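cache lookup: miss for this entity combination. No prior model stored, computing from scratch. Input as submitted by user K.M.:
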Amino acid sequence: MELVIEGLSKNFKDTKAVSDISVTLHKGVYGLLGANGAGKSTLMRMICGILKPSSGRVSFDGMDVSEEGFRAVLGYLPQDFGYYPEFKARDFLLYMAALKAIPKKEALARTEELLELVGLKEVSKKKIKTFSGGMKQRLGIAQALLNRPKLLVLDEPTAGLDPKERVRFRNLIEKTGHDCIVILSTHIVSDIEHISDEVMIMREGRFIYQGKWTDEQTSLEDFYLKQFEEAEEDE
Amino acid sequence: MSNFGTLFRYELKKIVSRKLFIIIAILLALITCLAPFSGVIGSRYENGTAVESYFSYYMKEQSGKRALSGRTIDRELIEETLAAYSKVPNVLRYSETPEYREYALAYNEVYTFIRQSLSISNEEMKTRVLGEEELYRRKAEKLEEYLNESFTTDSEKEFWKNQYEKIEKPFKYYYHDAYERLIDGFMTVSVLTMAFLATVLSGIFPGEKATKTEELILSSARGRKPVYAAKMLAGITISLGTVLAVGILSFAVCLGFYGTEGFNLPLNFDVNFVMYPLSVGQGSLMLYGMLLISAALWAVFIMFVSEFIKNGMATLSASMLLLIVTNMVSFPVSARVLGQIWGWLPLNYPSVWNMFDERTLPIFGKCFTSWQVLPIIYLCLVIMLFFFGKRKYERLSRE
């Protein structure tokens, strides 16, 4: 299981949103840290094949990002999770399952399983427009997990979750990370502090740090700030 | 495409579950149901005073017409009609006089048929002594004059003359109010249907961007080709379903209230420029049948434009503007080709005058009527727009 990112760049007119990023990721949880506007979402959208890179390439086990096979192993939760307000939670997941080419029988079983997992079983027949922000976000997480992804890309997944839900979510991701590659982007350091195997810190479209992270080291927040200070000094 | 059926079903659900869809569908259904009753609502005035309700007035008219139903329009009926009208005072608003209601009301359709066939005024009609031979000869001459004025070719004139000869003469009059209401109200129904489709389909592609679901779709395995096809098919299904629903509603209301009689009355009796041997019943069915294919092309066009400009509001505005412009602009008969193309556009075509247009499409020396060729032309355009849109969708799906 290998995600290869080679010389990935994205320019919007004169602005370089992502600049020449190369990295190879294997099974595990990767925390992507950076301030707002650092280029995290742009990078993730390119990894998911939604945004066309200005240059560079993304591939998973040899499959290019533009191939259907790549998208078949991908689970993605965008920063602004979109939904159909008039759909019931169950219907939404079944629709997403059809989009992910999951056979009908399996889709039904997986939907029930995930509704249970994210705590939405009781409200599965209610319209999404009646859900709280946290419930919607949990539904977003469920849809990303539908196809048992080998590559799970989560962009600011904890936004809108209350502290109890955050803990529950972290446990879920930690468990999922044993079997696939999880890229979790956030600007809240505590979200990834205890679950990520490796941390990537982004600033102005570049990685200013990429490496292993363990709880025995100093606090991630201090480390994160130190990296920024060093990057500023280098400039 | 194992999941195509599910994708298609959910695309339909996305359209019909929107509040906007439900509200304007109810409005469309209400207007469709009420429009055929516009002539029987309110009060009737004679010399400025309300004398009775239009409903009771109509019931008298209906029973009079039913009494005449089945009679041949021959010398006897012509004389009877002219005699009835001779009792009506010679005033501008003669239909508001008690004499009209008493003597002429039942004969108004036969009278109009005679007057239009001869193309003469009410004054002249009263002094006229007329036999059936003269009526049908003059009618044929008037149709020939009409063909000459319409810049039709010699082969078209020959074609229409042959068609007109197939209509059995002398005409037999039948009470046919249900079909008359269906034909008269068709234009309103078709414009409303097209406006309805523009409103509900203009957001089918851009809506995914607005609801931020586009990223989920595009990052899914089936998010590209099958989704495009499912959306297009859902839009076409909505357009066909809408026309079918509106058609069934119109027929049910008209036939239910006005009665089913008169299906076989020649369409030429009601719409005097139609020379094809069709009955009013067949004509009504054909109007709704052709609205089906026009609506399908219109639906594909709207979805294609919305995918192209990626803006639901702009698509809706452009569609409404087109709807208004096509209904307002017409070409002079001398601009034969331009006028014919304009009249055969899917927004203009669903109307009695464009559908039963005397202009044909000549292919290898044979004249083909609009309803014989347009289904094929529209189908080709649907396929063309579908594939152009598909290319655009696949290209644009990655910014």
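stored under new cache key. Chain B is about 65% helix and 5% strand.
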